């Protein structure tokens, strides 16, 4: 594979293309792309989350607050999909959120920026995180109008509430 083609494929991969999409676009096998992406340290590998990595209530509240403000989750065929919707130009927030996810869950996330608009999406897949959100929040079909904490405010740790407030405001 020539270097110019590999650079284009890496750029597409960083923008969210799957190995299957790269294979269809460039005419090389999935295993060829897997080899080159792994060699360059870019290959996204499944990092399954089984638990929270830290009991830091501030960070947990922050994550729950960000999701309550601008998040969505749904089942996409077999995948438990979670998204955070943001302005694509807010790259500091993207970096911050990536670090938060690594610290809290050991999870890597993908950032996808739309070319035609200012919309950006942080996307990741995890059954554990999908269910973890529901431990803290209630919401109905129109999440924007109905999202709320499950318990009364006095039932939560003060650090969790601080993080939740920061998360809602940040989103």
What does this structure look like?
50% of the residues lie in helices and 18% in strands. It contains eight helices and six strands. The N and C termini lie far apart (42 Å). The model has no long low-confidence stretch (mean pLDDT 91).
Biggest sheet features = 4 strands, antiparallel
Helical percentage: 40-55%
Strands, count: 6
The helix tally amounts to 8
Mean pLDDT: 91
- What order do the strands of the largest sheet run in, or round the barrel if closed? 1-2-4-3
Determine the oligomeric state from the structure.
single chain
Instruction: Give the percentage of residues in beta strands.
Output: 15-25%
Order of helices and strands: HHHHEEHEEHEHEH
Q: What is the gyration radius calculated from CA atoms?
A: 18 Å
Structural class category: alpha+beta
State the shape.
elongated
Extract low-pLDDT stretches: none
Spatial gap, N to C terminus? 42 Å
List keywords for this structure.
171 residues, alpha+beta, four-stranded antiparallel β-sheet, two-stranded antiparallel sheet, 8 helices, 6 strands, elongated
Entry summary:
The chain is of the alpha+beta class. It is built from eight helices and six strands; from the N terminus they run ααααββαββαβαβα.
What's the structural blueprint in terms of helices and strands?
Layout: H1 3-14, H2 19-26, H3 30-39, H4 57-70, E1 71-76, E2 79-87, H5 91-105, E3 110-113, E4 119-125, H6 127-136, E5 137-138, H7 143-146, E6 148-149, H8 158-170
Antiparallel strand pairs: 1-2, 2-4, 3-4, 5-6
Helix pairs in contact: 2-3, 4-8
